[in-house]
Design a protein that fits this description.
two-stranded antiparallel ribbon; elongated; 496 residues; 7 strands; mainly alpha
């Protein structure tokens, strides 16, 4: 398995017997066939699920259309929401729902298109005539309102004029009293003064004019002459009321004709809507009848039949693998071998738990997932993601990587190359070593690499290769630096 499979994705440990070289090519072919069957079964199950969803949506739409048809036709029967799909399918033969002639007779709908046309024309003409009359009436109404406003303004002006006359009359009275109280003769010569006599005469004439103006105004106020302003205003008010009533009646007639036009149009539209809805329902009914896994064919078989066939093939194949290949015993042995080696290595590294017992489940489809666990405290095992600290993180990665290197290298017919590439195992301590202890911990990592390949050499009779890329230098271990240090890419020298 790759580093990505081991630490990022779910590894496919069903390939372990092949990678470890336990069985021949025949086993690999059986496993590949099993995987293909599983994928085909999964694909069919997805398709069946999609079919079920699509059918559910189709049935919901079918029922909604049926409900709309009931409402549109307006039959005495009511649509029942609890009706099943089969009960609705049975109603396809109901003439009151799907025979347009029976519906026309029941609804008294107009079938003759010429009759539709004639009625529509007559109503439209009446409607246009009413619109013109209503417009004219509104125009006249506005003119009457404007005229009444002018009359009201004139009446106000007359009132002001009357008050002014009364004021002037009072002034004349006072002036008259003042003048009459004086003599028209000169006090020296006792002769009549002509200027005073003329002024007195003019004042008397003005008084008489004011008197008659007031009398005339009061007389006109009491008369009911058509020329009188109040009478004209009253007549105008009556004309406004009459015009309002006329507009109201014309508005009612306009609404009546509009409703009649809509009714005639609606009858025609309703018939078309019913026909369209019937077509949709019949089409969906046909789809529902065919929308079954037993009717959807693939390679000459229905989805259900093909699924059952593949399931039986998979059962036969699983039984054959189980009977001919002792997978579980070998896997149990391999699990113990891997866990022991990982536990041994991690206890040599900078790991916080002493005498740690590690476990990495290589069982196919393991419920706890393919993840490294610290089983030291068996009652509360710690998953790799929960262990924490960079040094623990590095220790777990190195232990598991070296554990798999050991496992595959010591399997006699393993197909996995015994090469391990590691990048910067010192990252938890570099670039600044806090003290010599950090330097010793890094040196210990490299010593663990050497011990691991020597152990493999002793058991498998060959030495695997570990390639390490790192920044550290001068670890204080001359054996490491003299025998295993190959290249130093610094000061302008580079790998790439």
């Amino acid at each position: 398995p790759s580093r990505k499979e081991l630490f990022i994705e779910m590894p496919k440990f069903d390939k372990l017997p092949i990678l470890a070289g336990w069985y021949s090519k025949e086993y690999k072919n059986l496993v590949d066939t099993r995987e293909k069957l599983k994928e085909e079964i999964k694909a069919i199950e997805k398709k069946r699920k999609r079919n079920e969803i699509a059918k559910k949506e189709l049935v919901a739409s079918f029922k909604e259309d049926f409900k709309n048809l009931y409402e549109l036709i307006g039959t005495k029967r009511k649509y029942i929401t609890t009706w099943t799909t089969d009960e609705l399918l049975e109603q396809l033969n109901d003439t009151l729902l799907f025979d347009i002639h029976a519906i026309e007779e029941q609804q008294l709908m107009l079938e003759d298109s010429s009759l539709f046309s004639n009625l529509s024309k007559e109503l439209q003409l009446s409607f246009n005539d009413i619109k013109i009359k209503l417009k004219n009436a509104n125009d006249e109404y506005l003119k009457l309102l404007e005229y009444k406003t002018k009359l009201s303004n004139i009446t106000k002006d007359i009132g002001k004029y009357q008050k002014n006359l009364e004021k002037q009359s009072e002034k004349m009275r006072l002036i008259e009293e003042s003048i009459l109280s004086e003599k028209n003769q000169c006090p020296v010569c006792n002769q009549e003064v002509p200027e005073i006599s003329i002024q007195t005469k003019e004042i008397k004439e003005a008084k008489e004019w004011l008197k008659w103006q007031l009398v005339d105004f009061n007389i006109r106020e009491d008369k009911e002459d058509k020329s009188d302003f109040r009478s004209i205003i009253k007549t105008t008010d009556n004309q406004i009321v009459a015009k309002e009533k006329e507009i109201e009646e014309l508005g009612k007639e306009k609404s009546r004709i509009e409703k009649e036009i809509y009714r005639i149009k609606n009858l025609k539209d309703k018939k078309q809507a019913i026909i369209q809805l019937q077509g949709k329902i019949i089409g969906k009914a046909e789809s529902i009848k065919k929308f079954s896994n037993t009717h959807i064919m693939e390679e000459g078989k229905s989805l259900d039949d093909k699924h059952d066939f593949l399931e039986k093939e998979l059962e036969r194949l699983e039984l054959r693998i189980q009977q001919n290949y002792n997978i579980e015993d070998k896997r149990t042995s391999a699990q113990k071998k891997l866990d022991n080696e990982v536990s041994r290595i991690i206890n040599l590294l900078d790991y916080e738990t002493k005498n740690a017992k590690m476990h990495y489940n290589i069982t196919v489809g393991a419920k706890e997932g393919h993840e490294l666990y610290d089983m030291t405290n068996s009652s509360e095992p710690s998953a790799f993601r929960e262990i924490g600290s960079v040094s623990n993180f590095i220790a777990c990665h190195l232990a598991l990587s070296l554990g798999f290197l050991y496992f595959f290298a010591t399997e006699k017919d393993s197909k996995v190359p015994s090469i391990l590439f590691i990048d910067q195992p010192s990252q938890a301590y570099f670039p600044d070593f806090k003290d010599n202890k950090d330097r010793d911990k890094v040196a210990n990592i490299y010593q663990t690499f050497l011990d691991s390949i020597k152990k493999i050499e002793k058991e498998a009779h060959f030495m695997p290769q570990i390639i390490v890329m790192d920044h550290v230098k001068n670890l204080g271990n001359n054996t490491l630096e003299e025998n295993y240090f190959k290249e130093d890419w610094r000061d302008g020298k580079a790998l790439i």
